[in-house]
Amino acid sequence: MKTMNSIRTKTAAFLKAGTFLVLTLSIAACTQYGKQSPSQFPADNTGRNLRDTTQGPPTSENQRENEADLKITQQIRQAVVADDSLSTIAKNVKIITQGTTVTLRGPVNNAQERDSIAAKAGQIAGVSRVDNQLEVKASEAMPQ
């Protein structure tokens, strides 16, 4: 009986130590992931979303909930989605309206998509400034 209790005690201690180790490594990995510079991420939303939670530029959480801002955002989104020349990735960029300023963020496939979305945003009534932070995917951004 003593042997069985000793085995259980050792097993429990081993499991606790293993759990602690896994937790510690997970926390360390998450902390290091958050410290990567934005340029280390490809132009997709995976790493950029993490970056956006800790840095200054507007994110979708900064979208104001007043009727005028929501209407501007809605009209821009409708214009972008209606454009069949844009890729799916371009149709999913972040559009943040704060007063009369619209911030565009996220990846696009090429400079033409970036410019087209910015132009659509600038044509909407009530928009006085477009802060175009759209990022062209690396394959297009860096000439070979």
Which secondary structure elements does this structure contain, and how are they paired or packed?
Layout: H1 2-34, H2 45-52, H3 67-82, H4 88-91, E1 94-98, E2 101-108, H5 111-122, E3 129-136, H6 138-141
Parallel strand pairs: 2-3
Antiparallel strand pairs: 1-2
Quick gist of this model?
53% of the residues lie in helices and 15% in strands. It is an alpha+beta fold and 144 residues long.
Give a structural overview.
The structure is a single chain. The protein has helices spanning 2-34, 45-52, 67-82, 88-91, 111-122, 138-141; strands at 94-98, 101-108, 129-136. It has 144 residues and is of the alpha+beta class. The chain has 2 domains: 2-35; 44-141, 2-Layer Sandwich (Alpha-Beta Plaits). Strands 1-2-3 form a 3-stranded mixed β-sheet.
For the structure shown, list the relevant keywords:
single chain, 144 residues, alpha+beta, Alpha-Beta Plaits, 2 domains, 6 helices, 53% helix, elongated
CATH architecture assignment of the largest domain: 2-Layer Sandwich
Structural class: alpha+beta
Proportion of helical residues: 40-55%
Distance between the termini: 72 Å
CATH class of the largest domain: Alpha Beta
Q: What is the alpha-carbon Rg in Å?
A: 23 Å
- Uncertain runs with pLDDT below 50, 5 residues or more? none
Largest sheet: 3 strands, mixed
Strand content range? 5-15%
Q: What is the approximate shape?
A: elongated
The tally of structural domains comes to: 2
- Mean pLDDT, to the nearest integer, reads 77
Give the SSE order as H and E letters.
HHHHEEHEH
CATH topology description of the largest domain: Alpha-Beta Plaits
Strand order of the largest sheet: 1-2-3
- The total count of helices amounts to 6
Please tally the β strands and state the result.
Answer: 3
